[in-house]
Fold:
Amino acid sequence: MGAVWEWLAAPREGWLLAGFIVAALVIGGLTLAMLCSTPPRYRKPIVMVVTFVAGLYYSLEFLLPPEAWGLKPPRNPLTDAQPTVAALAQIVSSFALLLGVWNLFLIHGRAVGKRTKGWYNSAAFFVAFFGIMLAGFLKDTLAGKGAQVSESMYVILFNGFLTSLDSTMFSLIAFYIVSAAYRAFRIKSLEAALMMAAAAIIMLALVPIGATITNWLPETGIISAFRVERIGYWLLTGPNMAAQRAIAFGIAVGGLAMGLRIWLSLERGSFFDRQL
Amino acid sequence: MSVLTKLQNIDRRILYLLIAVVIAVPLLRRPSKHPSVVFLEVKNAYNTLDRIPKNKVVILSTVWGPGTRAENESQTEAIMRHLFRNRTKFVVLSWDQLGSQLTYDGGTAIAKKMGRRYGADWVHLGYNPGPMYAIIRGLGKNFPGVFKVDRFGKKLKDIPLTAKVRDHRDIGAVVEITPSGTVAYWIAYFNQPYQVPLVFCPTAVMSAEAYPYLDSGQLNGMLNGVIGAAQYETLIGMGKERTYAAAASWALSSAHIFILVLIVLGNLGYALSRRSTRARGGSKIG
Structure:
């Protein structure tokens, strides 16, 4: 079994790699199709068993004591399967990427086909998708001048468009924060005043200008505690830390309960026989 | 419209224009002045990475993409410079498709400038779709079992740097550079079980969540946002260079001051108009 897995997982190149990818897609697609065509009453137990076994592996591997088995270096018998399970998990995650692309193609393909309102935005998606994919493939496969042209095209599309657009989307937050802070942050109560004071101190303490404002105060002694960066640090490591710890405990307990529900298939919508 | 009402209703387009100017000026001027104060967690991060034994490899786990490039790229590059300077070997993992290209480009540029070679001083393992817990748990037990090739498809056993990496015993530290809460995976599945140091480089907005882990010793240090990167640059001797991190720290300074001024203006208008309404015997505003 180990030898078969080693052979399957060995790195490959060129046409052999392409062949393996196609074979994996065909097998994955067939498995998914079989699962989808299975009647719901059989589908549910299949999903339950797979979910339980997958969760059971990680639970046992994590909890079984490594010293009790006499193996060197100390490990439990399930530990050796870690790379295999990690590789399987990676493959399943990769299929999720494929499903995302498939979903985009369906939605935008339908919009272009039916010429719905704003269909040209969907057409732009296809142009962008195939444009950058083509540039990426060509720069790795062509030689000479063709490679130079496709490399330049890739750089323009990747750095000029893709990363810039992504950064732009995120940077818009700065404008919303300014507008929201100005319009919504009204001191109407003692709690709001305390929050405002804490926010102001943290905002100043985390930037160089904060230290400059109270630079005239001594660096040591009791008075140094009034330097903005010291007050800010106290807020972060005192009240903030206590609150964050409480939140973390709450999330951990909730996560445990949620994990158990998913593992034991008690969560609604765990199966694709009904909509959430 | 009275001044009080105007103070509460500045056109948002004016606000957008002002914040753009406030942020852009320091970025365009690129002052070389770095922050004078270096936070304790940044010093601890520096000390942790400065003491990595030469026979061990550091993992740079990068979860960021172009969206948080402004903060995470400076952190990544400052740490790369430090590791290159010390000749500490490192591998880069990327959990973001676009970030994979950005971290490779950044590493290549710094390596070229500092005279370091790909394969001997650093290796990029390319994009990994995850799930993180499975990969992290697996690499601690069997690194070559989980990672077989680098980003170019070259076998890791044929690359001098990675050929000798077996498991957690060959890893000196992990640096998690991320805009999200992924550090918990490293703590739970790698750094805590094997007692390997962990340095956390979040965006500033995420840094508040890390203090319990710093307090418990599960994190050995932290670079909080681009300010942390600028402070780290000071520690590695770049305090007088015109870097993006230094400029960004002053851009953030002016932006924070601007936001505070706006909040005060808005509240001043609110308080004064409430007082005048009460004096006229009217109802409360807000």
